[in-house]
Amino acid sequence: MTPGQILCAILLALAIGFGGAWQIQDWRMGERLAEQAGQFEKDLAAISNSAAAQAQAEQGKRLALEQQLAGQDQQHSKELFDAQRNQARLRDQLATADVRLSVILAEDSASSCNVPTAPGGAGVVHAARRAQLDPAHAQRIIRITDDGDNAIIALRACQAYVRAIAR
To answer: Measuring CA to CA, which residue among 162, 166, 151 is closest to residue 79?
Structure first.
């Protein structure tokens, strides 16, 4: 063999050695990347499962809150209906003179003003003089108290709603 052929053979052997080493290194890198991809898929699946469980828990809380609010709404609607029914009954009784509103008169010995009491009416308050209100004034008083009752019921409903939402 000539020195050129020997040099060629050595270069060829080195090239084959480097190529094999390169292929081994490339194979190891591919294996490492495959392991990382598998670990990434496992982590991604765990994160997805956790997010799905959290979303399901939040949806359960929201549904429970909606049911609670619906129950409270029914309760407040019933209270409002009952109050309105009682108010209508009282207005009807006032209109038909079944019930009369009266006020207790203050005893003022210095005053000479005597308001006559209702004839023959037995009162709940003993030994107090009472005067009956005009039916029109009694109706106005009932309307004012009706508005107040409705406002109180609405306020309680709003407060219950805010308490439920704030939790």
So the answer is: 151
Per-residue model confidence as pLDDT tens for the chain (167 residues)? 677 777 777 776 766 666 665 566 666 777 888 888 889 899 999 999 999 999 999 999 999 999 999 999 999 899 989 988 988 888 888 878 777 778 788 776 655 555 555 555 544 545 578 888 888 888 888 889 889 988 998 999 999 989 988 87
Positive or negative, the CA dihedral 120, 123, 129, 130 is: negative
Cβ-proximal residues to 107 (8 Å cutoff; 6+ apart), any chain: 129
Angle between helices 135-166 and 3-95 (to 10 degrees): 160
Closest of 95, 152, 103, 100 to residue 129, by C-alpha: 103
Within a 10 A sphere around the Cβ of 150, how many other Cβ atoms? 14
Calpha distance 61→48 (Å, rounded)? 20
Whole-model pTM: value is 0.51
For residue 127, the 8-state DSSP code is T
